[in-house]
């Protein structure tokens, strides 16, 4: 899943080498924390959050076969 997020986000940003995905796993959920350069945060979120929503939709669909709930947090 980490590779999927990186594959989606890296073409969108100006500094793909600064894209980081951290995984935090609990008993009932998996949280992926996406970190990008400060100047790229707007590109990842998009107008009215449309790009972020699309990324989350793909990630949630890909992880639907798992027994745990999946969350994607976007930060700088």
TrEMBL record:
Superkingdom, natural source: Bacteria
Key words of the record: Cell shape, Cell wall biogenesis/degradation, Chaperone, Cytoplasm, RNA-binding
A single GO BP: cell wall organization
GO (cellular component) term, any one: cytoplasm
KW RNA-binding (keyword) present: yes
SUPFAM superfamilies recorded: Prokaryotic type KH domain (KH-domain type II) (SSF54814)
Record-annotated membrane-spanning stretches: none
Main location: cytoplasm
CDD domains per record: KH-II_YlqC-like
GO molecular function, one term: RNA binding
Subcellular localization(s) per the UniProt record: Cytoplasm
InterPro entries recorded: KH_dom-like_a/b (IPR015946), KH_sf_prok-type (IPR009019), KhpA (IPR020627)
PANTHER family: RNA-BINDING PROTEIN KHPA (PTHR34654:SF1), UPF0109 PROTEIN SCO5592 (PTHR34654)
Subunit and interaction comment: Forms a complex with KhpB.
Protein family (similarity comment): Belongs to the KhpA RNA-binding protein family.
Function of the protein: A probable RNA chaperone. Forms a complex with KhpB which binds to cellular RNA and controls its expression. Plays a role in peptidoglycan (PG) homeostasis and cell length regulation.
Protein name: RNA-binding protein KhpA
Taxonomic lineage of the native organism: Bacteria, Bacillati, Bacillota, Bacilli, Bacillales
């Amino acid at each position: 899943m980490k590779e999927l997020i990186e594959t989606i986000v890296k073409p969108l940003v100006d500094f793909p080498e600064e894209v980081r995905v951290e995984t935090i796993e609990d008993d009932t959920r998996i949280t992926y924390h996406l970190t990008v350069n400060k100047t790229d945060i707007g590109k990842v979120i998009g107008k009215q959050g449309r790009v972020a929503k699309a990324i989350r939709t793909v990630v949630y669909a890909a992880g639907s076969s798992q027994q745990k709930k999946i969350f994607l947090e976007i930060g700088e």
